[in-house]
Automatic annotation (TrEMBL):
It comes from the Eukaryota. It is a multi-pass membrane protein. It is found in: Membrane. Keywords: Membrane, Transmembrane, Transmembrane helix. This is Transmembrane protein 88B. The keyword Transferase does not apply. InterPro entries: TMEM88. The chain crosses the membrane at residues 39-58, 63-85, 110-131. GO terms for molecular function: PDZ domain binding. GO terms for cellular component: plasma membrane. Belongs to the TMEM88 family.
């Protein structure tokens, strides 16, 4: 028997064993109460509404935070492109004093190009700022699984972490990540 046949035999034997396992076992048995007790239909509906409301609230907080950060960081680009478009004769051609005395079509075109060139690095800075702030506040840990609504005894993710979104627990300064 060659080594190739032995490998095929082992692979065939492995695939037969893997068919016997219906699903993978859970990674952390401490988070679950065995066996889980399902909730009643009305209780499940009420908990589902609570979990969906909480997850939606966390989503909108993340969205608002992202909007504020991107607006502040991209403000120079917005201003430069706005003045470039406002003073260009083929776009808006404003009658403002600074458009007639300072900005002509060439300088307006330069402002538009400059605004779009500096946009890319500022988007990276804005995203890095949002990611570090969301990580520091642990906003993504506030999302709750749907199993919280279906079964009794499922713990809130943030409960053992030290409070809502783990804000009470100290921030780990040893872990660094580059964005």
């Amino acid at each position: 028997m060659s080594s190739h046949d032995a490998e095929d035999l082992g692979a065939e034997n492995l695939s037969e064993k893997s068919r016997m396992l219906p699903t993978l076992p859970p990674y952390d048995m401490d988070d679950q109460l065995l066996p889980r007790e399902p909730r009643s239909a009305w209780c499940c509906l009420a908990w589902t509404l609570l979990v969906v409301t909480m997850n939606s609230l966390v989503f909108f907080i993340n969205l608002l935070l992202m909007f504020i950060i991107f607006t502040i960081v991209l403000l120079p680009t917005i201003v430069v492109v706005y003045f470039g478009f406002q003073c260009h004769s083929r776009v808006l051609h404003s009658a403002a004093r600074y458009c007639k005395s300072i900005l002509d079509d060439n300088s307006s075109s330069a402002l538009i190009i400059l605004g779009f060139v500096i946009m890319s690095p500022l988007i990276v800075v804005a995203m890095a700022t949002y990611c570090s702030l969301a990580r520091r506040l642990r906003l993504l840990m506030c999302f709750q699984p749907c199993s919280r609504a279906l079964y009794k005894g499922v713990k809130w993710r943030w409960y053992e972490e030290g409070g809502l979104c783990s804000c009470a627990r100290g921030f780990n300064t040893q872990v660094k990540a580059w964005v």
